[in-house]
TrEMBL record:
<keyword id="KW-0732">Signal</keyword>
<dbReference type="InterPro" id="IPR047745">
    <property type="entry name" value="SinI-like"/>
</dbReference>
<feature type="signal peptide">
    <location>
        <begin position="1"/>
        <end position="30"/>
    </location>
</feature>
<protein>
    <submittedName>
        <fullName>Predicted outer membrane protein</fullName>
    </submittedName>
</protein>
<feature type="compositionally biased region" description="Gly residues">
    <location>
        <begin position="164"/>
        <end position="186"/>
    </location>
</feature>
<feature type="region of interest" description="Disordered">
    <location>
        <begin position="157"/>
        <end position="195"/>
    </location>
</feature>
């Protein structure tokens, strides 16, 4: 009787043990255990700038010009409204909605220096830009990506596109989206490489002591010896043939004096000695003094000195 009881007890214990063993994994498989630590965030590639040509070129932009101061296929000129166009690229296809984010980063450059107040995709060239290279700084910025902001791209000359050779060279950029150099424009732009020109420049030659600065060019007024004559160069944006406030650009140019035509006895004129460059020209009293003062490699005054000549100048951007 005792033996039978022990057997029954062992069967019960064994059954309970088996039941308990099976129940444990059943309870564990019904719940998830969350790991409290995470890895770093998933990042993509940085965005970079490219032009908008049919076959986009990285680290370049495209430009268009609303021609206010030049012919449609000429170099950029004072008065032109220049607009920069670009595309964004990265490996993931991130976008910049309406280009707003990137547009806000654009700064315009004149010979590599930021132009005060010149920001955004459009800039109108002024007389201060004449003879200068125009560039931009632009930072590719997407609306969706991580990282959303690429490296700032500095383009020193937006007219100098891939394949252009104006003697200045320049680099395209690096793999992180950054870059700098003279290169910057697109080969598909219809704008020749080169500095900005000013088609509005006009010249005044006047008697130095004339407070009204009457322009003697184009007149038949008689000039005199023992007299000083001066020059003004101005950018006549409104084409009214007057030197209005802000139009004087003399300091931006080098000029040299020239005796035009022939003297009274038929001696050919020419360029005056370079000691008179960029300064008022004083006509001496005697023929001998004139020869000493003005003779140069391209000018030899005759016995009649400067008598019979007209005055003119040559000029070029500094």
């Amino acid at each position: 009787m005792k033996l039978e009881s022990n057997r029954n007890l062992r069967k019960v214990v064994l059954a309970l043990a088996v039941a308990g063993y099976c129940a444990i994994p059943a309870i564990a498989s019904a719940a998830w255990t969350t790991v409290t630590e995470s890895t770093g965030a998933i990042n993509s590639t940085v965005p970079w700038i490219q032009d908008t040509s049919a076959t986009p070129v990285d680290h370049h932009v495209s430009i268009s010009a609303k021609r206010g101061g030049s012919k449609s296929t000429a170099q950029l000129a004072v008065g032109d409204e220049v607009t920069v166009h670009w595309g964004l690229a990265d490996a993931e296809g991130d976008t910049d909605a309406n280009d707003a984010s990137t547009k806000a980063t654009i700064k315009w450059l004149r010979n590599g220096q930021e132009i005060s107040g010149a920001e955004g995709e459009t800039y109108t060239l002024t007389s201060a830009d004449a003879g200068k290279k125009i560039g931009i700084k632009i930072t590719p910025t997407t609306a969706t990506g991580i990282p959303a902001v690429g490296a700032e791209l500095t383009l020193a000359d937006i007219t100098n596109g891939p394949g252009d050779n104006d003697g200045s060279g320049g680099s395209d950029g690096t793999g992180d989206g950054s870059g700098s150099g003279d290169g910057g424009g697109s080969a598909s732009d219809d704008i020749p490489a080169g500095p900005v020109v000013d088609n509005n420049v006009k010249v005044v030659i006047y008697k130095t002591d004339d407070t009204n600065k009457k322009n003697l060019l184009g007149t038949t007024d008689i000039l005199a010896t023992k007299t000083s004559y001066s020059v003004i160069l101005y950018s006549d944006a409104n084409n009214n043939n007057k030197v209005d406030t802000g139009e004087d650009v003399t300091s931006q140019y080098d000029y040299r004096w020239r005796f035009s035509g022939t003297s009274a006895h038929g001696t050919a004129g020419g360029v005056v000695k370079d000691t008179w460059n960029n300064t008022a020209l004083v006509i001496p009293a005697t023929n001998s003094e004139a020869g000493t003062a003005f003779n140069s490699s391209s000018l030899t005054l005759g016995d009649d000195g400067v008598q019979g000549y007209s005055l003119s100048i040559d000029y070029q951007i500094k």
